[in-house]
Design a protein that fits this description.
The structure is a homodimer. The first copy, chain A, is α/β, with parallel strands linked by helices. Among the domains of chain A are: 97 residues, Ubiquitin-like (UB roll) (Roll), CATH 3.10.20; 65 residues, Ubiquitin-like (UB roll), CATH 3.10.20; 139 residues, Domain of unknown function (DUF4445) (Nucleotidyltransferase, domain 5, 2-Layer Sandwich), CATH 3.30.420.480. Chain A is built from 17 helices and 27 strands. In chain A, the strands form seven sheets. In chain A, strands 12-11-10-13-15-14 form a six-stranded mixed sheet, sandwiched between helices. In chain A, strands 26-25-16-17-18-27 form a six-stranded mixed sheet, sandwiched between helices. A four-stranded mixed sheet of chain A has the order 6-8-9-7.
Amino acid sequence: MSVTIIFQPLGRKGRLPRGTTLLEAARRLGVGLSGVCGGLGACGTCRVVIPPESRTALSPPTSTETERLDAAELGRGARLACQAQVLADLHVLIPPDSLTASQRVQVEGRQTPVAPDPEVVAHDLELDPASLADPRSDAARLREKLGRAVRFDLAVLQTTPSRLREWGWRARAAVRGDEVVALLPPDTPLLGLAVDLGTTKLAGYLLDLETGRTLASAGEMNPQLAYGEDVMARITYGMQEPEGARRLQEAAARGIGDLLQRLCTEAEAQTDQVVEAVVVGNTAMHHLFLGLPTRSLGLAPYVPVESGPLEVRAREVGLDLAPGAVIYLLPNVAGFVGADHVAALLATRTNEADVPTLLLDIGTNTEICLAANGRLLSCSTASGPAFEGAHIRFGMRAAPGAIERVRLIGGEVFWEAVEGRPPVGICGSGILDAVAELRRAGVLGDRGRMAADPRVHPGQYGPEFALVPAETSGLGQAITLSRKDVSEVQLAKAAIAAGWQVLLEEAGIQEDEVQRVIVAGAFGTYIDTKGAVFIGMLPAIPLERFEQVGNVAGTGARMALVSQAERERAARIARRVEYVELTVHPNFQERFTQALRLTGNK
Amino acid sequence: MSVTIIFQPLGRKGRLPRGTTLLEAARRLGVGLSGVCGGLGACGTCRVVIPPESRTALSPPTSTETERLDAAELGRGARLACQAQVLADLHVLIPPDSLTASQRVQVEGRQTPVAPDPEVVAHDLELDPASLADPRSDAARLREKLGRAVRFDLAVLQTTPSRLREWGWRARAAVRGDEVVALLPPDTPLLGLAVDLGTTKLAGYLLDLETGRTLASAGEMNPQLAYGEDVMARITYGMQEPEGARRLQEAAARGIGDLLQRLCTEAEAQTDQVVEAVVVGNTAMHHLFLGLPTRSLGLAPYVPVESGPLEVRAREVGLDLAPGAVIYLLPNVAGFVGADHVAALLATRTNEADVPTLLLDIGTNTEICLAANGRLLSCSTASGPAFEGAHIRFGMRAAPGAIERVRLIGGEVFWEAVEGRPPVGICGSGILDAVAELRRAGVLGDRGRMAADPRVHPGQYGPEFALVPAETSGLGQAITLSRKDVSEVQLAKAAIAAGWQVLLEEAGIQEDEVQRVIVAGAFGTYIDTKGAVFIGMLPAIPLERFEQVGNVAGTGARMALVSQAERERAARIARRVEYVELTVHPNFQERFTQALRLTGNK
């Protein structure tokens, strides 16, 4: 009897005999899970985490596990992969430190390019102690020294008396507008948390609010992955499972909470120093994180509950920051154009462009903005998960061993895998490269058909091109690109190309008039622009007009975290954006059909 | 073996043999618990509620009980008194409908004497349905029709999409300042809840916010009684028991929640129509309800955490009103002069008095305000629980069978009991009457000593005067007033008299210059003013200068509920009040010692 195992965050899936250990399963499926001692249960490096729903799908913890893992870890679903035997279908999460090399999560940049002007400011206060001659309330005493009629958040008041007395009637008050959101020991730096809450990955940044300096940055997989790979799967899960929406909300909060712990450890800070947070994400992630219903996001006309900027108490959504800390959510534009897009526009200043400029953030949904003739036109296009490695036979995320570059030189295939490991799969940039190179070499026709070639063989899903033979592969079998894989890429790139083409038509701009193309996001940063232009995914314009900017949504979140002016700018951007709904646009279908062709643009 | 049973809300306590049923115990202790069928378990009228800590002190529910009480009731600790046998010391709560006649709780008045100007106002909206041509967010759509840049509370947003669609894109928005706190079906009246959260009793009022009309009013015992009779006992419980503060918070919220249910049933309304609440209480009740620490309230210099007005989300303190409803808490003045005093000043307009005016709210702590020469001087004096029936041998609250009036005519004792029942004890007004009459008749000297009299006999606690002989008593034994009881009254009245005397001295006013004395609160409304003046508890001025006004704290809460102007007025009053700390006042001790005398003022 065999069972299905899915390893996250790599997204690798396979069927293996019941009774296999998780470590053995990981090895057979080419998952880079640590296991220094070779499966003796001696090193503890193969620690994995099992989501609640999958816990009964494993053999009970062995005595080795109960020795090596403490009760809290076991309670959170931690197991040793070399000990746990698979009894039924399950999901396994590999924490970053158990991967043979950390998953590549796009987090970069130590500085935010704005002058700090934070919503929350610090005031150091020295109070007169209470006495029978002066029995005013603690709050009145603080108010007097602040010299302002501030309000106090209830959670702050609940700890005020003990803290003031412990600190000898001295304190630093964190004041947000007219409200005190935290009391800290005098001179404690006030920190802020910026989060890009992606469907797949979370990127987090811990900043000093006063200096605007980034103290730490880190990435984590979105724990919601256990409930569905893409936005629509999660919306469905949230609607159909009785506790689905709550689980998704808690998973997002848990992911951000874990990220914050890592950031605080790195920066040697305490979570209660974090007095403000900014979270950006697509509209579905925004809604799922806030516990807002997503039913109307999942059905035409794809209507969000709220598109304006929102402020919520961190504690109300399960985040443990300073007692009264607020989370500021940047505005969304539409059901499929979210705050992450607004943050990307903010960070890249696309809205201020004085020449026709395209911004593309390529993912499962690709958000595109055209700034031209004083307008900001945005759309979202369903490019599918092909570039994240899903729906591709040997597809995987950009983890170690993923082929990320492919070249055909003199009829021979050259490739490069992440961290130089033996290849175990192929990630988005590699898939794009492979298609472009095969097209260039004439192995693929413009409709994606595979020509006769010594390396093309019939396979389960139509003809397959062998990229890596079994001997060289880290998988013990050949890594191939199939006709079906090529179709997936055609669908993805057609969706993207039809998107920017419709926007150009709306604005009355020709393709070659575009002066600047900003490609954002983790995948976009690694792709070979030349190949993308060659197959018609990006406009056929000189390569020097392209910029690959990395995670600008995270940068935008950080800018909004430290600057009130940037928040106002983001709100103005969101109001200015004209949303173009592609699904009902008269030209979209035709553009899409045309764009299925692998053009061979130079 | 005998066990101690305490019946609340009457506050009656006694020792009885282990194995006694609760109904039998109630009868032996003179508690007016219903039992129409005579203890056969057939009528269910003897239903009582056992607080969680006392539940194991009873025999397990019998089959009769599991038949008559449903699982939810049993889960809340409901029992039939005729079935449950006492195994150990315990507290028993008698719900109002199980008392032979409802406890007298001071709730009155159908109107608030102010023009409505509420914080929350209604807007009926008719929206254009969402479509692919107009996919704006639900919130944007509401904002457009409101014509204002409102924010939405998160809990409101969480139910917005389903409700808007259910109601055909029509809704009534409840808007508080710039925030939407509830969405209701079109034309639903917006309601408000005003609560006087007393140490012993809760008084609640349900109002129509638009008209200011009181739709329903009701009283309940404060469920915190299970954790201590007075403020200090509860502060101690909250500090010393591990979960004490949380239990007290939850008990207060539960009490208000139950009261709200009754009010809504009476007014045929839903709790989610309640979009705003005002709660007043003494400073300790205010803190315990909000989960604020009370340690510094219980020790000199008796410092509150917050004395200013406070706004908290109802859901944050466990009250289930409209999703985003806010509770507004009127300001406190000091550790022992709370928002209930401010509300009483507001309702009586004492602050606007143009002649020297005293306001007294008599209770375990008596708050007194003197308005004179443009000043407002307030103090709190520890008058003790004697007038609530505690620490008095046959003392009880003003429940049926409580002697509330006593007269000595021609050497014969005449008395009147609540609802004309056979007397089972004596309540505050009766105790005050008895002392005044015995003093008038010369049975008591000015120091409280009992003269020789045919009805005075030696008792366990010194000489006792027989008010009701055993034959007439509903207790099966004589009801007496002991020398010790008289001492308790002397202590109480001395504390009160010393309080207003110190205030008069502070303001430089003579006793006979006081033109108006407002006596507030449940006890104050029932006392015989003449007797109180006679023993020196109230100033020796003509009786026509006294007013007995009932629960003006509740009236003040209702005024603040429906009027923003009244909230501002209350804040101004609280700032104007000069707090006089009696415990350190140079004259207090001397005035107190003098005031122990039963003066015999005419």
